[in-house]
Amino acid sequence: MGLCKSRISGLLCLLFLFSSCYKKPKKGREDFIDYYHGVVIGENKEYLKEVEVCIYESFDERDLKTKDSLVKCGFTDKKGYFKIQDSTFTKDNLKSESRSIVFKKEGYELFRMPIIFPESGYRPKVSKTEGMFFIFATLDTVGLRKETVIIK
């Protein structure tokens, strides 16, 4: 009788051990999400709050001057984090994506970049997600530089 109890308790311990070792896989660099998000920092690696982050339909500078190509805007919080919901962006339209993201904050240089860099053909891609930013579960970070003032 004592042997049965020890076997049962041993089996229960093994079951507990194996179940506690299982971890749900984390979303990472390869996992697309249905919103844009990331973190904005300054030159000294400090979080920048209240940075205006805007998504535009294209990377063409002329489009940035009109509201026609503006998709959506948002602001960073005190931890420099931003999240912009966009249900029109999907995995299916990824190849034809030409949107850009613009970061604006008073006292800092305006910074814009394409969300997906076009392939140059200059060198092969290391991974299928290379050149894509702010559209994965893993956060991307962008740094802003302070404006330089030229005194004449």
- What is the alpha-carbon Rg in Å? 23 Å
Structural class: alpha+beta
Our estimate of the beta-strand percent is 15-25%
Q: How many DSSP E strands?
A: 7
Helix share bin: 10-25%
The main β sheet shows up as: 4 strands, antiparallel
Q: What ranges have pLDDT less than 50 throughout 5 or more consecutive residues?
A: none
Distance between the termini: 95 Å
Can you write the helix and strand succession as a string? HEEHEEEEE
Number of helices: 2
As laid out across the biggest beta sheet, the strand order is 3-2-5-6
**Morphology call:** extended
Average pLDDT figure: 75
Describe how the helices and strands are arranged:
Layout: H1 2-21, E1 35-41, E2 52-56, H2 61-64, E3 70-75, E4 81-85, E5 100-104, E6 111-114, E7 140-143
Parallel strand pairs: 1-7
Antiparallel strand pairs: 1-4, 2-3, 2-5, 5-6
Structure explained in plain terms:
The longest helix has 20 residues, at 2-21. The protein has helices at residues 2-21, 61-64; strands at residues 35-41, 52-56, 70-75, 81-85, 100-104, 111-114, 140-143. Helices cover 16% and strands 24% of the residues. The radius of gyration is 23 Å and the shape is extended. The protein has 152 residues and is of the alpha+beta class.
